[in-house]
C-alpha cells in the first residue's frame, strides 16, 4: 500500500523545517544556509557523561520530608563543583554540507514514509538547479546523497564552538576537531566527553556522497582513531561496491515494518500525521539501541540540545513506547526494557544514597546513559520521588502486551520488586491504619512552588497497579507474592471525590495544567475507564481550559476522551495538535510557537528557541489513534469508542491490546462492519461495541444482541465478529 509523503516546498532555513532520516543509531536532518545544503548528522552515543559536582545529594529524603521549605528553596542542591562544572547532556550532531554553485533560493522535497527515501531539488539564484536522491540505510550507518547538477564542494566538520551556545564545550576543554584526508575519503575526528571520540567519514564519488558516523564514549586515542577510520573506510568502500544488496535489505526492512499494522481514517490531516509519527518511531526505535531521548537521533549541529536532550523519566520517554505496543511492534520496546534493567545497579545506588534504602530503585527525572542524572546529578528534579513508577508502568505494559516470560523473569520482575522496596521503605501508617506515601507530587502542578503532598493520585494508583500485577507475576514464576498482596491491601485507596480523581486527597484540580497525572487510573493504567468517576475527572480537566497545556497535552487528552467514549472530542484534540503545534516538517513545538492563540504565548518552549522540538507528542498521537479504535480495561474491551460521528468509514489492522490480542476492524456507513480478533492468550473477555448494530455473530454463531457480548478465546485462534443488521 502506497504510503504518504512529506512534501516541503519552502527553503528549510530552520532546524525544524527540513527532511529527516534515522535508523535508531544514526540520524540526519537537512536544512539550508545560503548556498549550503546542510546535514546535521547525529549518533545516539554522543553524550557528555561528566558531572562537575559531587555525587552525593545535599540531603536525604528524610531531610526533605522534615524540611520541605529548604527543599523548595534549593538549600539541598548547591553541591560543591569539582573543578570544571560539567553537566551530563546529549551532545550536538556533527556537520556535513554540500556547497552549491550559488545561493539556494527555492526548494522542493518529498520524503516517502514507506521507503524512507527523499527526492530533493534546490533552485539556485543563478537559475541553476541541483537535485538529490537521499536515504539513510535502515540497517547500517550509511547516509547516501546522490546529486544531479552542480556540486562545488563537500564539507565535513565537528563542533564550531563559536556558534550558538557551543561555547560551553570550549569551557569544558573540548579540543577542536581534526580533519584527515585518506585518498578519496575525508575523516573528521571529534573528541568528546573526556575519553569519547566521534569519527565522521565522507566519500564523494562522482557527485554521489556516502557518509558514515561512529561514536565511542570511551576510546583509546589515537589508536582508536586509526581503527575507527579504517572501519569507516571499509564500510564506505563495501557499500559502494554492494549497494544493490544493501538497498534491497533497506527496502525490505521498511516494508516489513509497515506490514505489521495500519490505520486508515477519512481525515487527511490525521492520516498524514499518523504515518509521519510511525515513520519517526522506526527512525528512532530499534532493538539493542538506547531508549528514545527528547529529540531522538535529530540533534542540531549548531547548538546544545534543548533540556539536555535527556531520557526524561515521565511521559517524555514512556509515551514514546505506547504506540510501539499498540501497533504490533512490541520488539521495538525491548531496548527500553533491557536498558533500564541493565542500569539497575546505578539506580539502586541512587536509592541508597538518597533514601538510605538498600535493594531499591530510584530513577532521576532527567537521566543520562547509565542511570546517572542529566543536567545535575542531585538537582531538584532528580531528587523527586516518582519517576521510577512511570518506568514501572511501562515495564508492566511490555509484559502485558508481549507475554514475554523470559524477560519477566530476568528483567521485569527484579526491576519492579526493587521499585516496590523503595515505597515499602518510605511508607508510614496514619491513624486510619493504612500505609501512606510521603512527599509525592503530581508533575508540574504549582501553588507558588511545585505542590508536594502525601498520597498523590498518580503515585498511589500506580503503586496499586504495580503491586496487583506483581502478585500475578509471582504466581506465573512460582514465587511467593504474599508481601505484594499484603502491601496492596494495606496501602491507602486511590481517592475519588466530587470532581473525580483529585491531584491529592482533598486537593482537586484547580487550574489548567499540562500533565493530567491525576487521570493515571484512566490511562495508562486502564484500571478505571468508561465510568462515572472517569467522566467527572475528564470534565474537571476541561473546566479549567487549555491555556496551561503544552502541545503534547492535546494528543494525551485525546486518549482520555476515547476512554470516556467521546469520539468527537478525541478527534478534535488531535486536529488541534496537528494544526497549532507542529512545525513544517511535523516536529512538535513545546508551546504555541505559531501563535494560534490556543495556549498562552508567554513562556513558549520554556525559554528554548522556537525551532526546538521533542518527539513524544507525535508518538502519543499515534497511540491515541489506536485508542480511538480499540482499548482494554481489565476484562473489558471497547471497540470504536473514540471514533467521531463524522467518520463514515475507517479501518485498523492488527492493533494490539493487553494479552497480545491483535485487532482488525472495519467501519462502513458509520457502523461497525467487521471485527477480527487474533487471540494472543486464552481468556474470557467482555466485548463492548459502540457502533455495532443488530445481532452479534462470532465465526457465524450468534452470541449476543446490540453492543455487548462475552467471548472465551483460545490462544492462536481467530474470531470474526459481524452484525446482522436489524
Describe this structure in words.
With 726 residues, the protein is of the alpha+beta class. 30% of the residues lie in helices and 26% in strands. The chain has a 9-stranded antiparallel beta sheet with strand order 1-8-9-10-11-16-15-14-13, covered by helices on one side. The radius of gyration is 26 Å and the shape is globular. The two termini are 35 Å apart.
Query: Taking strands numbered 1, 2, ... along the chain, how are they ordered across the largest sheet?
Result: 1-8-9-10-11-16-15-14-13
Please indicate the percent range of residues in DSSP E strands (runs of 2 or more): 25-35%
* Helical content class: 25-40%
Number of H- or I-type helical stretches: 18
Give unreliable regions as ranges.
none
The whole-number mean of residue pLDDT values reads 95
Assign the structural class, choosing from mainly alpha, mainly beta, alpha/beta, alpha+beta, or little secondary structure.
alpha+beta
Number of strands: 34
Distance between the termini: 35 Å
User: For the report, how would you describe the main beta sheet?
Assistant: 9 strands, antiparallel
Instruction: Please give the radius of gyration in angstroms.
Output: 26 Å
What general outline do the C-alpha atoms trace?
A: globular
Amino acid at each position: 500500500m502506497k504510503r504518504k509523503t512529506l512534501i516541503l516546498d519552502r527553503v528549510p532555513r530552520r532546524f525544524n523545517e527540513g527532511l529527516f532520516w534515522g535508523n535508531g543509531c544514526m540520524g540526519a536532518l537537512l536544512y539550508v544556509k545560503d548556498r549550503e545544503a546542510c546535514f546535521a548528522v547525529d549518533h545516539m552515543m554522543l553524550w557528555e557523561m561528566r558531572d562537575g559536582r559531587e555525587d552525593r545529594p545535599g540531603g536525604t529524603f528524610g531531610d526533605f520530608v522534615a524540611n520541605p521549605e529548604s527543599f523548595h528553596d534549593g538549600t539541598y542542591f548547591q553541591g560543591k563543583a569539582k573543578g570544571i562544572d560539567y553537566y551530563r547532556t546529549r551532545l550536538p550532531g556533527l556537520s556535513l554540507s554540500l556547497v552549491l554553485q550559488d545561493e539556494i533560493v527555492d526548494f522542493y522535497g518529498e520524503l516517502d514514509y514507506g521507503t524512507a527515501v527523499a527526492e530533493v531539488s534546490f533552485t539556485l539564484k543563478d537559475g541553476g538547479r541541483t537535485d538529490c536522491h537521499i536515504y539513510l540505510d535502515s540497517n547500517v550507518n550509511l547516509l547516501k546523497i546522490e546529486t544531479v547538477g552542480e556540486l562545488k564542494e563537500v564539507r565535513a566538520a565537528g563542533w564550531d564552538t563559536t556558534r550558538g551556545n557551543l561555547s560551553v564545550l570550549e569551557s569544558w576543554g573540548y579540543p577542536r576537531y581534526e580533519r584527515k584526508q585518506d585518498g578519496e575519503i575525508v575523516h573528521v575526528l571529534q573528541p568528546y566527553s573526556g575519553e569519547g571520540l566521534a569519527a565522521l567519514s565522507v566519500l564523494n564519488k562522482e557527485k554521489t556522497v556516502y557518509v558514515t558516523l561512529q561514536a565511542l564514549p570511551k576510546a583509546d586515542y589515537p589508536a582508536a582513531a586509526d581503527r575507527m577510520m579504517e572501519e569507516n573506510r571499509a564500510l564506505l568502500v563495501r557499500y559502494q561496491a554492494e549497494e544493490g544488496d544493501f538497498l534491497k535489505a533497506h527496502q525490505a526492512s521498511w516494508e516489513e515494518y509497515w506490514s505489521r499494522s495500519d490505520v486508515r481514517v477519512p481525515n487527511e490531516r490525521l492520516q498524514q500525521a499518523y504515518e509521519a509519527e510511525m515513520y519517526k518511531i522506526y527512525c528512532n526505535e530499534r532493538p539493542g539501541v538506547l531508549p528514545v531521548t527528547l529529540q531522538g537521533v535529530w540533534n542540531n549541529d549548531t547548538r546544545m540540545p534543548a533540556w539536555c536532550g535527556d531520557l526524561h523519566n515521565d511521559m517524555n520517554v514512556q509515551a514514546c513506547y505506547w504506540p510501539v505496543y499498540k501497533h504490533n511492534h512490541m520488539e521495538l520496546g525491548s531496548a527500553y526494557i533491557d536498558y533500564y534493567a541493565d542500569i539497575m545497579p546505578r539506580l539502586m545506588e541512587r536509592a541508597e544514597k538518597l533514601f538510605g534504602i538498600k535493594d531499591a530503585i530510584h530513577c532521576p527525572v532527567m537521566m543520562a546513559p547509565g542511570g546517572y542524572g542529566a543536567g545535575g546529578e542531585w538537582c531538584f528534579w532528580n531528587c523527586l520521588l516518582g519517576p521510577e513508577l512511570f518506568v514501572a508502568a511501562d515495564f508492566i505494559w511490555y509484559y502485558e502486551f508481549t507475554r514475554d516470560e523470559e524477560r519477566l523473569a530476568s528483567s521485569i520482575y527484579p526491576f519492579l520488586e526493587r521499585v516496590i522496596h523503595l515505597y515499602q521503605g518510605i511508607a508510614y501508617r496514619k491513624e486510619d491504619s493504612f500505609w501512606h506515601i510521603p512527599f509525592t507530587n503530581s508533575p508540574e502542578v504549582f501553588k507558588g512552588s511545585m505542590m508536594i503532598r502525601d498520597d498523590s493520585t498518580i503515585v498511589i494508583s500506580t503503586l496499586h497497579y504495580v503491586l496487583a500485577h506483581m502478585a500475578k507475576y509471582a504466581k506465573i514464576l512460582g514465587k511467593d507474592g504474599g508481601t505484594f498482596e499484603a502491601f496492596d491491601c494495606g496501602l491507602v485507596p486511590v481517592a475519588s471525590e466530587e470532581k473525580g480523581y483529585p491531584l491529592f486527597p482533598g486537593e482537586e484540580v484547580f487550574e489548567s495544567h499540562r500533565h493530567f497525572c491525576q487521570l493515571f487510573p484512566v490511562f495508562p493504567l486502564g484500571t478505571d475507564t468508561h465510568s462515572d468517576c472517569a467522566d467527572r475527572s475528564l470534565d474537571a480537566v476541561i473546566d479549567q481550559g487549555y491555556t496551561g497545556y503544552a502541545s503534547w497535552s492535546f494528543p494525551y487528552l485525546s486518549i482520555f476522551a476515547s476512554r470516556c467514549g467521546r469520539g468527537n472530542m478525541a478527534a478534535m484534540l488531535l486536529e488541534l495538535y496537528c494544526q497549532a503545534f507542529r512545525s513544517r516538517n511535523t516536529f512538535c513545538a513545546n508551546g504555541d510557537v505559531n501563535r494560534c492563540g490556543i495556549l498562552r504565548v508567554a513562556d513558549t518552549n520554556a525559554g528554548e528557541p522556537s525551532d526546538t522540538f521533542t518527539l513524544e507528542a507525535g508518538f502519543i498521537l499515534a497511540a491515541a489513534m489506536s485508542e480511538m479504535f480499540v482499548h482494554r480495561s481489565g476484562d473489558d474491551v471497547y471497540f470504536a469508542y473514540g471514533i467521531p460521528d463524522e467518520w463514515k468509514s475507517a479501518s485498523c489492522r492488527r492493533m494490539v491490546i493487553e494479552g497480545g490480542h491483535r485487532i482488525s476492524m472495519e467501519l462502513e456507513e458509520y457502523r461497525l462492519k467487521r471485527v477480527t480478533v487474533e487471540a494472543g492468550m486464552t481468556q474470557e473477555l467482555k466485548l463492548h461495541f459502540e457502533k455495532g448494530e443488530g445481532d452479534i455473530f462470532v465465526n457465524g454463531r450468534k452470541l449476543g444482541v446490540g453492543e455487548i457480548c462475552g467471548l472465551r478465546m483460545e490462544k492462536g485462534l481467530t474470531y470474526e465478529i459481524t452484525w446482522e443488521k436489524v
